[in-house]
Design a protein that fits this description.
five-stranded mixed sheet, 625 residues, 5 domains, globular, alpha+beta, six-stranded mixed sheet, Beta Polymerase, domain 2, Hypothetical protein af1432
Length: 625
């Protein structure tokens, strides 16, 4: 049911890209439904309220329909969290008369100031809606009584120039609060919201929020796309505002097109709807809105997919930064690209935008499909050589085509890709094809175990097939269970659905060969294997001041980067430091362990990977490979 509902939302969003009326009707329908939930079961109320907060209210916000967003959020809030809703409603009502009197006083001061300056404008009070108050309490981890910005005013002018003149008037009357001024006129929000925001210490020392905008801007802020309705029967939308909104939807769909699963599509869509933006600049001065927490890689993909895929370095405000650097408002970013740079899986750990994430995943998946195809072909040819069968004769036969279809494969590539992913055993498939007497009458020819040697060198497989290094052509990954590093004795294991995983030869996670000997492969470290490799170490020390500082100093002197630290105090005056680090190879690790062991107060230091479970099988594995 959940997946079916996700598919319904996906269809609505797709339709929205062609005709915005689709979503406006859906929003109006939901606004009506949220007011009639009283007769439904509690489960239904919760489900509809959650859908409203997750999908419909954010869409209303993204289309700039502020009043509907507030109405949907407050209606859903009442059913999602009835106790919190009632508590805020009561608190808000109890101080309402005092706030109204205060707003009236400030309103009079501002109106007189506008008249004295010859500015035509309207001053109105504004109040926060209940769900907005709840969100602020949650985000700032404060109680209702600690909120200082429940009081707000909005000043509506007749011209853009007057907006900035009024801002000067407000700041001359009361002291502005540093860091609270935002110019959404110069840099509108993605939903085209435009306004000046400021906060001041008003009369009686009260904090006061002030919004300044023109009447036209206010109309857009409240009504959004509905304020620009210029639709003629039988014609397309011609209004520039609508065109921009449709461009947003289509751009969003473009980033999601590779997500076939409806739930994945909706989850990614939510990320875009809920994003709290930062505004950054290209070297030419173009404004790029991004989700808060975005990195140079997100920026690169926002500019163009090709720039994202070849992003190798970044400068922010003229200074070189890491690709993991979190961008801030006003940053100017310059991206360096190289033809050899490609997206890698580690980027997924720090990118924030759905466009960057979906494009990276699409690239990785397409590469892994190709790698699994290459590996599958290699394994199939190797197995055929063991049965002394000519591959050309075998693969072109009628029996092969029939067995292929009977096994559920539509073509040869699907078969070999499944073999490369470890989903299909080559021997089992071949033995379905060969006559029983041929299988029993011929001893399988023992071939050399496949050797996969990385590092820019070609390697020779059984049957004389030459391939490039596995880093480029074979689906292969390092085991996260044992974290092998260059210099460790290693073995390749064909993991079902994942290609070849490289393990430490004593890793307890890999199964004993037994009847699955075809899943094991000789692998070797290549010339380019050195670099940042993950390892885990455990350090037990005397619990006294300065120990951690001295250990981190030693690690830094050994050019070791700490990626994760878990520190805990033991009961017997000892402390335990479990660290995830990045090293070049086993010799680098040994040198570092030796240096740490010399630190006064260090009781024990060792690598955390436990290979004891694999010791008993080591000889059997070696016999197989």
């Amino acid at each position: 049911q959940e997946e079916s509902q996700a598919e319904n939302y996906r269809k609505m969003i797709l339709a929205m890209s062609e005709d915005i009326r689709v979503v406006l009707i859906k929003l109006a329908d939901r606004a009506h439904n949220i007011k009639t939930l009283g007769s439904l079961s509690s489960d239904a109320q919760q489900r509809i309220a959650r859908e409203t907060l997750d999908i419909f209210a954010p869409i209303a916000n993204r289309l700039g329909i502020g009043w509907m967003k507030d109405e949907l959020e407050d209606g859903a809030f009442m059913y999602m969290m009835p106790d919190e809703h009632e508590s805020i409603r009561v608190e808000l009502a109890s101080g309402q008369s005092l706030r109204e009197a205060y707003v009236k006083k400030v309103q009079t001061i501002l109106e007189n100031a506008l008249i004295a300056s010859g500015i035509t404008g309207k001053v109105v009070g504004r109040s926060k809606h209940l769900y907005g108050i709840h969100q602020k309490m949650e985000q700032q981890e404060i109680e209702f009584n600690d909120l200082y910005d429940l009081t707000g005013l909005r000043i509506l002018t007749t011209s853009l120039k007057d907006c900035y003149s009024v801002l000067g008037q407000v700041h001359s009357l009361w002291k502005p609060i540093p860091g609270r001024f935002k110019d959404y006129i110069a840099m509108p929000k993605p939903n085209l919201y435009r306004s000046l925001h400021t906060a001041v210490i008003g009369p009686e020392g009260e904090r006061l929020e002030v919004q300044i905008r023109t009447e036209t801007m206010h109309n857009i802020c409240e009504e959004g796309i509905a304020a620009h309705w210029q639709y003629k029967e039988g014609e397309k939308f011609k209004n520039q505002y609508m065109d921009q909104q449709l461009i947003w939807v289509r751009h969003l769909l473009e980033t999601q097109k590779d997500l076939k699963n409806p739930k994945d599509f909706i989850n990614s869509f939510k990320v875009d709807l809920f994003s709290n933006e930062v505004y950054v600049f290209t070297p030419e001065g173009r404004v790029i809105p991004l989700q808060r927490g975005s990195t140079p890689v997100d920026f690169a993909y926002a500019v163009h997919t090709d720039i994202g895929e070849h992003c190798s370095a970044a400068k922010v405000n003229g200074k070189t930064v890491s690709l993991k650097y979190k961008l801030r408002n006003g940053d100017q970013i310059e991206i360096k690209t190289t033809k050899t740079q490609k997206p890698n899986r580690s980027w997924l750990s720090f990118v924030k935008t759905s466009k960057a994430r979906s494009k990276i995943l699409h690239f990785i998946n397409s590469i892994e499909k190709e790698k699994s195809l290459n590996l599958g072909k290699t394994l199939l040819h190797k197995s055929l050589a063991e049965y002394q069968v000519d591959p050309l004769e075998f693969l072109k036969g009628k029996v092969f085509d029939e067995t292929l279809r009977a096994s559920g494969f539509t073509n040869f590539d699907n078969l070999v890709r499944s073999i490369g992913l470890g989903k299909v055993s080559t021997h089992q498939f071949i033995e379905k094809l060969l006559p029983r007497e041929k299988i029993e009458g011929k001893q399988r020819k023992k071939t050399d175990r496949v050797k996969l040697c990385g590092g820019g060198r070609d390697f020779l497989l059984a049957g004389g097939v030459k391939l490039k290094c596995f880093d480029d052509d074979i689906l292969l990954r390092l085991g996260k269970c044992c974290h092998p590093v260059p210099g460790d004795p290693i073995i390749g294991y064909l993991t079902r659905g994942r290609g070849i995983t490289v393990h430490h030869i004593d890793c307890g996670k890999i199964q004993s060969p037994g009847e699955e000997s075809e899943r094991f492969f000789d692998v070797g470290w290549g010339e380019r294997a050195k670099g940042a490799h993950s390892a885990r170490i455990s350090i037990i020390v005397e619990d006294k001041p300065g120990q951690l500082a001295e250990i981190t100093r030693i690690l830094a002197s050994c050019d070791i980067n700490i990626t994760l630290a878990n520190l805990r105090q033991e009961s017997d005056q000892r402390a335990n430091f479990d660290l995830c680090i990045e090293i070049n190879d086993i010799e680098h690790l040994k040198k570092m362990l030796s240096e740490v062991a010399k630190v006064p107060g260090v009781i024990k230091v060792n690598r955390m990977e436990d290979y004891s479970a694999g010791k008993k099988k080591q000889e059997r594995v070696k016999q197989v490979v």
